[in-house]
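Limitations
The structure tokens in this dataset are predictions for the assembled complex, not deposited experimental models. Users should treat interface geometry with appropriate caution, especially where small molecules or nucleic acid strands are included. An illustrative entry is reproduced here so readers can see what is and is not provided.
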Amino acid sequence: MNPADVVIVATALLVSSAAALLGVFLVLRRMSLMSDAISHAVLPGIVAAYWLTGGEAATVPALLGAGAMGLLTVSAVELLARSGRVRSDAAIGVVFPLFFSVGVILVSMYFRDVHLDLDAVLYGEIAYAPFNTLTLLGHELPESVVLMGSLALLNALFVALFYKELKLATFDAGLAAALGFAPGLIHYLLMTLLSFTTVGAFQSVGAILVIAFVIVPPATAYLLTRRLPVMIGLSLLFGALSSVAGYVLAILLDASIAGMMATLLGVFFFAALLFSPLEGILATRRRRARQRRQVAARLLVAHLAQAGGAGQLEETARQLGWTLPEARTALETARQGGWARLEAGRVDLTPRGLEAARQGPKLAV
Amino acid sequence: MNVLLEVFTDYTLRNVALGSALLGVVGGVVGAFAVLRRQSLLGDALSHAALPGICLAFLLAGAKVPLLLLIGGGVAGWLAALAMLAVLKYTRLPEDSALGVMLSAFFGFGVALLTFIQNGDNANQAGLDKFLFGQAATIVAADVATMALIGGLALVIVTLLYKEFKLVSFDPDYASTLGFPAGRLGALLTSLAALAVMVGLQTVGVVLMSAMLVAPAAAARQWTDRLGAMLALSALFGAASGLTGALISASAPQLPTGPFAIVAVSLILILSLLFAPLRGLVWDQLRSRGQRRTLQLDRALLDAHVLYNHAELSVAALAARQHTSEATAASRLRDLEARGLARPAEARWTLTESGLAQARILTGPGRGGPERDLERALIAAARLEEGQGVRLTALRHETGLPAGQVEALARELVGLGWAEPCPAGWELTEQGHAAAHRLEAQLRRAALTPARTGGAL
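Predicted assembly:
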């Protein structure tokens, strides 16, 4: 691993950390798509900064311009939604394409063939990270590492300092306001930091892929835990894992580094979606199937209890409108619960089964 | 203006314009349902998710076959929508996060594939990245035919299932109880969005497609409350902005079509939001300013009434009572004068008969007593009168008051200058109409707020 690799991976790690720290709260506050809107809408701000500084890469003006555009986007969406004429999702859906279009038009009219080409707008070029350096305290450091390091630190400070306020404003904005915590201020701070992070990450992962770093790791963590600190930790972990593995894969396959990282984030998400013990599709299906079997078994027991505590399986199935296999499954579940016995096609309720039928909710058959 | 003519003569421009207009129509119609179903951002996710499909179709075919690429994109978007539905069905992840995950993960995969292809040695790949923002200039007649086929399919489905789609969009639960497969119809509408995305891939590209679905529909919604009209307007807006984008980009080299179409459709939306009749924000502002003014005058009249009865009505006294400057108080009194409710009397002001009556009405809607009867007579007269005058018998019917009292009330209305005799009985004067109008507004307000107690003092 040469120094360039280290710089690239370090940049990616910092981008994913900075993004995931904010993303956790965006996902919980159901505002994930604000990151979509902001990441598109900062483009005119960045272009304006390029234009004002004469086409040079200018970090601070770009940050300011994009921060302003980010807040403008948030305000425009809220203004539209509050006018009552357009729902908030539609408001997001029209605001950012407009801003992004203006940005694209500006790029194609004035900045064709300069540093700012459209590919870089979309998926950045993290491979250039080692080449842009700046001198800080006598050391020559990669600009991206310094920039994203500062942003990650800033976001970490924000989350650490305002942890209680963030938590309260996220889970109960009304209570937060009643207690004097100013959830509105927290909201705008979050949006400002999101704009900064988006622009900072813009050069390395591009305007659209930054959404992947903001939303996907927290969404993956959300499927795996119900605790906020664990969710933050898992988000950081998934971000870091995809950064490292995505880089390795991208080099092997000769594909976009940022694109590969986003792909891996998606892979982690789908893995969690399938296999999470808490919310995964497999676990949920298993749980729902078990619940169905339990209900069927209770129904069977209740029906038999009404019929005097015993009955022919086929006859019972017919009465309940079940197929024979369905009835057998229900009987099997009832037998596992010690509620019923099967002898020569005749089902007998055990004393426990009778007790269950008496205790259980009255089921109309 | 040359550009406009060239639409008919220039081969490239004709294709571009046709393709863009086609996208506008299909996006407008399909998008209207998405907006009504609160799925505005689904189009965004669908279109971003189309990118890996395009790339995979290219990898499989080894060449840029337009129809294959479009189908690849549509299928990938459709898969993303299905995955999103699965997330919503099985987990508690919020819908916006589910959308965001599909959008960014699929797009990321698409970017990885795209760069993988670009860095490979297939010489056919040049121009594949044009699907990101679209490049209408490369559209040829065969592309337009493909787009017309796909878009036509979507429009035919909408026409055939119009009633069902309408029901599902406005009240899916009711649709279910009627026996319509609401879930499957919803999924079909989502699939239509995927078709619209396929039509838009070459013109506006995957990144900006969502606006072509959302903005025309949101704009059309401001103009009408009827679904049919909304679909037609939405299609019209979409087509107009598509054409605008095509024409602008043709007017100079290096201008992209898609972004200009988006800017055009956004402008239409902004204008609609501001100026559409009834729902326009500008009219809203004017209306609420008028209402504020009416309220302000009512309050001035009430305060003037109190001063007139209990002290002296002068500019200074009104200013003190209303906590405002003398200039403002004077202008309010002049406004009252202009409406015939007050008039200057030497150094003071006095209320006219009409002003006194109106003040009495304002102090107590909802009370019984003589004023209440007068109010009822006035409103009843305003309702009865349709240009041909009011008869006393009709008024008696309407108010349910004894004949003698109705006659006395009518005389009182005439005395206030609110009514005058006419051949058919008598009719309300302009002032009378205004008073009735204000009174009705006042009663509506009173009905909406808890009952007030007592008068102004």
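Some entries come with short summary sentences. For this one: The beta strands of chain B are 342-345, 348-351, 419-422, 425-428.
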